[in-house]
């Protein structure tokens, strides 16, 4: 009975140590633009314990640590795409400057207690870094002369971006959802790790059509609009020529 009491006491003590440290919350921006800065925060509750260290990782590689016993307490490790501003970094936040496309990844905060427990807790979140230039999408194939009811053969290509932008077509303000009219060419690689998206449109023509292509990354968008007009006079000429040919064939058959 005495052994059971001792065992329960140690079990209770172990559980008490385990719940002393907890991560209250981690804040990592989900989407940042290349060249911007970013502040990552890690909020934790020691619940009476003493802090031993706070470490930050990107994709399991450590790039920053804070240890209150050391002087200075902050230390940054070299990591491609990660530039730590030590003056703006503390035990609860780390400030990154001049983000690049290589800055994207899974960021993890790991907090450890002082002796005797050295218990640790961690939390993680993903940060995407994008590049979206000011250039609008490029539309090709609209310059040619179309006949009425002839299928369109136009393509829209985004500017070099990262990640690959989403593309959509609109005709006279109406979004095209009919997949039989759309041809997705996918994303193709471009220099500096960027990508170009291309989406084709194969819709039947009308007398006048306002085509708009929209490229989006997150809440950012770029768009381009072109207008296609079918020359009615040339269509009437073609139609009249067709009637004349038909009449001649009928006359020949009658004679």
UniProtKB/TrEMBL annotation:
PROSITE patterns: IG_LIKE (PS50835). InterPro entries: CD80_C2-set, Ig-like_dom, Ig-like_dom_sf, Ig-like_fold, Ig_sub. It comes from the Eukaryota. One of its GO terms (cellular component) is membrane. It is found in: Membrane. Its main location: membrane. It comes from Mythimna separata (Oriental armyworm). Keywords: Disulfide bond, Membrane. It is a single-pass membrane protein. Residues 35-128 form the Ig-like domain. This is Ig-like domain-containing protein. PANTHER family: BEAT PROTEIN, BEATEN PATH IV, ISOFORM B.
